[in-house]
Specification:
The structure is a single chain. This protein is of the alpha/beta class. The chain has helices at about 55-70, 90-100, 115-120, 140-150, 165-180, 205-210, 220-230, 250-255, 315-320; strands at about 10-15, 20-25, 75-80, 105-110, 125-130, 155-160, 185-190, 235-240, 245-250, 265, 270-275, 280, 295, 305-310, 325. A nine-stranded mixed β-sheet has the order 7-6-5-4-3-2-11-12-13. Helix 5 links the parallel strand 6 and strand 7 (about 185-190). Bound molecules: iron/sulfur cluster (SF4) (2 copies).
Length: about 325
């Protein structure tokens, strides 16, 4: 049994439409063509077989029946990994999702060929490209970004900032912003082993991370509006004790250590799902509420009510971007 965190505040979406979306963060295996030094081996060593297309399409049908037909929600897949674009049936999976009206996004290292991205641009509703400084081919990354932008796919770029290579990474981030017309960009602090503890950043580095690079105004205004309109969750509203609200970014809450909602009623499982590389399904990355079953199994038990948070920290951005309300017994 946890205690109520009296310093925590309710968190809701700035755009109420996002509360109707179930973002399915789906680790499509652990195969990857990169081997980043900060990435745990089991996230990229290919030790887990790819899911069969049959199990994947059965899962999509289950999601559609439960969330769209049952709860009147909208579904977004966020395919991640490993590197999801390495999945041999990538385009078949996207086609199955599209046939059910399910939108598809990827989190990718952006390293596939131009031909791949030209085809992907026709099936993706958005893309998050992650810039991994030691492995990336910078020119190819920019080429991928430009192909997606030219096709009108909203793109967000995450640049992972290892503290030992900070200045070079910040320079790369500035160059990416300069070369794109519409992408949004975050320089992300890294957590050790992708756990809850941040790498040891200096105070000056923390200040730079909080300030984040800004695009110089140029000819991308129309494209930028389109990107912001249809893009996935970003800003949240934090409800303060005097009844006022403030807009907050998940990244900033992590940097400030204000990411704790133990005992709150969290919409994880209703606004989000997490599928691990082994096919097990959870409400969110945090695992709160336990395992719901496995892809392809009839016994998969998808939620209809919120979960009470039992975690000390809400450690990752996608988990923070979920509605969290105070416990019912709490007087405010
Ligand atoms: S690209 Fe992603 S999955 Fe691949 S090694 Fe790097 S961090 Fe790990
Ligand atoms: S996503 Fe998980 S850790 Fe974060 S508030 Fe919800 S239940 Fe807690």
């Amino acid at each position: 049994m946890g205690t109520v965190n009296l310093d925590a505040h309710a968190l809701t979406h700035v755009d109420p439409a996002h509360a109707k979306v179930v973002l399915v963060d789906w680790m499509l295996g652990n195969h990857c063509n990169f081997a980043c030094d900060y990435c745990p081996t089991n996230l990229h060593d290919g030790s887990i077989d790819w899911i069969s297309l049959g199990d994947a399409t059965r899962f999509l049908a289950q999601l559609h029946a439960h969330y769209v037909e049952g709860l009147g929600r909208n579904l977004w897949l966020q395919l991640t990994g490993g590197e999801p674009t390495q999945y041999p049936r990538f385009f078949d999976l996207c086609a199955s999702a599209q046939s059910l009206g399910i939108k598809v996004a990827v989190i990718s290292n952006g390293s596939r060929t131009a031909r791949f991205w030209e085809k992907a641009a026709s099936v993706l509703s958005s893309a998050i490209l992650t810039y991994h400084d030691l492995q990336v081919d910078h020119a190819r990354f920019i080429e991928t970004l430009r192909i997606l932008e030219a096709a009108g796919v909203p793109v967000h770029v995450n640049v992972t900032a290892h503290p030992d290579r900070f200045e070079n990474i910040m320079a790369s981030a500035e160059d990416i912003l300069a070369q794109s017309v519409a992408a949004t960009l975050t320089v992300k602090p890294l957590r050790i082993g992708f756990g809850t503890e941040l790498y040891p950043y200096s105070d000056a580095q923390m200040a730079r991370l909080a300030a984040r690079p800004r695009r110089v105004a140029r000819n991308g205004d129309e494209v930028r509006k389109k990107a912001a309109w249809d893009f996935q969750r970003g800003l949240m509203l934090r409800w303060l004790s005097d009844g006022t609200t403030e807009k907050v970014r998940a990244n900033d809450l992590i940097l400030a250590g204000e990411n704790h909602w133990r005992s709150f009623r969290c919409q994880a499982g209703l606004e989000s799902l997490r599928v691990k590389a082994d096919g097990t399904v959870y409400r969110a990355v945090c695992g709160s509420g336990g395992c719901l079953g496995r892809i392809g199994e009839d016994s998969l038990d998808l939620p209809v009510v919120p979960v009470t948070c039992d975690r000390d920290s809400c450690a990752c951005v996608s988990d923070i971007l979920i509605t969290k309300m105070p416990p019912l017994s709490r007087s405010t």
